[in-house]
């Protein structure tokens, strides 16, 4: 063993771990053990993981070390541990989507992204907590446990990928996969001081992601640095014949964009500040500290050579009501498959009840309140007589939002906004107020509805809590998000040192 300490390991970026593993400075078993030890010590407080299999992780790590010792040609990610949101189907490993209805389910196959990460030699540490079926912004809708924000354990870690954000921010995984339907990668990344990217819709396979809203769901990276996000994104991207909406285009070149961006020169880049997302006349509901960090970051972009202008996207004001009709409508249909017959839990099958009663009992006891609310809402919005008034109307708004983006791209290369209107709130503060919970998605929903890529990059603190800056780009121009985010990250690091881990020093900064 070298002189690398366990703290060095758990405070490293994934890119640093990849380098150290390739040079033989550390082995994957040593790296994996350092994470497992930290999980054992801290996850009782944080609650990031629903499932950790230490033996399986160490066995996978041992296999990578043995292959490396034999001189086998391995990819750059071989031996690097990671965590997956529990919405990602994993062969033989419990997968619940945060719901009681899937308690005890061990899938017979891997999601495409899980299979790709396995083939790349990454080591699965465990599955992370989430809002049930990815519905929520705080991870409090999980049927299993509360997850705490490592920056302040009385606060939420964001959602729905809050287990993944808390794990990475607390140093319980070097990086993690989240999924984003209306903001669930970007918002938890923002409120825990991480980088989170929602890829262009269709560029990462949805095969094996438990569906919430199929026309919106995308998986993506949640990491400590922009380069790490690009590396993880490249590993999961690319065409998949098993997903009918998968785009058949080459895997985007993202790590290169991140490295180029870190050079810091943004001259010639045209940036649009979205008026409707926290701008003049639209600042209600935003923390003053969030708006202050946002304004400073826009000024930083200008100092790096970008040309900044205001851009109005009027239909963005309607993103929230449109999303909360479209997403529940699709969810009400997707969740029909959970009937107690095919997967997971079955309730009341005692020989005395007919099939309908067993299904009703299973769904009554298997689903939590937010999921039921959305099934009712979605079923109502799709029912005959109301379909045009609600679902049809929402789809028209979706088209208008896409048009606002298309018009904006005539004038600017990227659009920017805060990621979340507020910093992480106190646990419990919004659980009984769904509308306040939904308001957390204000800034992230437009990119979701239009299917365009968007990244959240840390941009400082407000009241000691992380604030995120969102960069949106045209479809398939994910590399622009990485370039701009990397430039900001480098400029901020230079200005004040890296602050990516809650309560941990980065020994490499
Ligand atoms: N907070 C949003 C919702 O509850 C987004 C969730 C998500 O992106 N999965 O639907």
Automatic annotation (TrEMBL):
Single GO MF annotation: transferase activity
InterPro entries named in the record: Amidase, Amidase_CS, Amidase_dom, AS_sf, GatA
EC number(s) stated in the UniProt entry for this protein: 6.3.5.7
Pfam family, one: Amidase
Active site: 85 (charge relay system), 160 (charge relay system), 184 (acyl-ester intermediate)
EC primary class: ligase
Subunit structure: Heterotrimer of A, B and C subunits.
Name of protein: Glutamyl-tRNA(Gln) amidotransferase subunit A
């Amino acid at each position: 063993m070298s002189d690398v300490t366990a703290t060095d390991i758990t405070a490293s970026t994934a890119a640093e771990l990849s380098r150290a593993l390739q040079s033989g400075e550390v082995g994957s078993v040593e790296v994996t053990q350092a994470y497992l030890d930290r999980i054992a010590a801290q996850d009782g407080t944080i609650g990031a993981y629903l499932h950790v299999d230490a033996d399986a992780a160490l066995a996978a790590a041992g296999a990578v070390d043995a292959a490396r010792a034999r001189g086998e040609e391995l990819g750059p990610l071989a031996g690097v541990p990671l965590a997956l949101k529990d919405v990602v189907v994993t062969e033989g490993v419990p997968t619940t989507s945060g719901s009681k209805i899937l308690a005890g389910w061990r899938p017979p196959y891997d999601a495409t992204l899980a299979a790709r990460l396995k083939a790349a030699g990454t080591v699965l540490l465990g599955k992370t907590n989430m809002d049930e079926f990815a519905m929520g912004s705080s991870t409090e809708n999980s049927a299993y446990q509360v997850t705490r924000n490592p920056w302040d354990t009385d606060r939420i870690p964001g959602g729905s990928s809050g287990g993944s954000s808390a794990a990475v921010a607390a140093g319980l995984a070097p990086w993690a996969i989240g999924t984003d339907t209306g903001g669930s990668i970007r918002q938890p990344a923002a409120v825990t001081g991480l980088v989170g990217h929602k890829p262009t819709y269709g560029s990462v396979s949805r095969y094996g992601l438990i569906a919430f809203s199929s026309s919106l769901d995308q998986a993506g990276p949640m990491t400590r640095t922009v380069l790490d996000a690009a590396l993880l994104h490249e590993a999961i991207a690319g065409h998949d014949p098993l997903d009918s909406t998968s785009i058949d285009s080459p895997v985007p070149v993202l790590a290169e964009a991140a490295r180029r961006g870190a050079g810091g020169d943004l001259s010639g880049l045209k940036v649009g500040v979205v008026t409707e997302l926290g701008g003049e006349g639209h600042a209600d509901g935003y923390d003053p500290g969030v708006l202050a960090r946002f304004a400073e970051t826009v000024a930083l972009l200008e100092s790096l050579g970008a040309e900044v202008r205001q851009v109005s996207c009027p239909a963005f004001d309607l993103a929230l009501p449109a999303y909360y009709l479209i997403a529940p409508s699709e969810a009400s249909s997707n969740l029909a498959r959970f009937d107690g017959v095919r997967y997971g839990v079955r309730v009341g099958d005692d020989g005395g009840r007919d099939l309908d009663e067993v299904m009703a009992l299973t769904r009554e006891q298997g689903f939590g309140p937010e999921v039921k609310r959305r099934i009712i809402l979605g079923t109502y919005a799709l029912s005959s007589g109301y379909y045009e008034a609600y679902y049809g109307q929402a789809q028209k708004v979706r088209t208008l939002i896409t048009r606002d983006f298309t018009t904006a791209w005539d004038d600017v290369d990227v659009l920017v906004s805060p990621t979340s209107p507020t910093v992480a709130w106190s646990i419990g503060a919004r659980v009984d107020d769904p509308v306040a919970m939904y308001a957390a998605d204000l800034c992230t929903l437009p990119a979701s509805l239009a299917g365009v890529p968007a990244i959240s990059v840390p941009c400082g603190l407000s009241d000691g809590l992380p604030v995120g800056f969102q960069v949106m780009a045209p479809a398939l121009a994910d590399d622009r998000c990485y370039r701009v985010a990397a430039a900001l990250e480098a400029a901020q690091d230079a200005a004040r040192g890296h602050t990516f881990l809650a309560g941990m020093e980065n020994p490499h900064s």
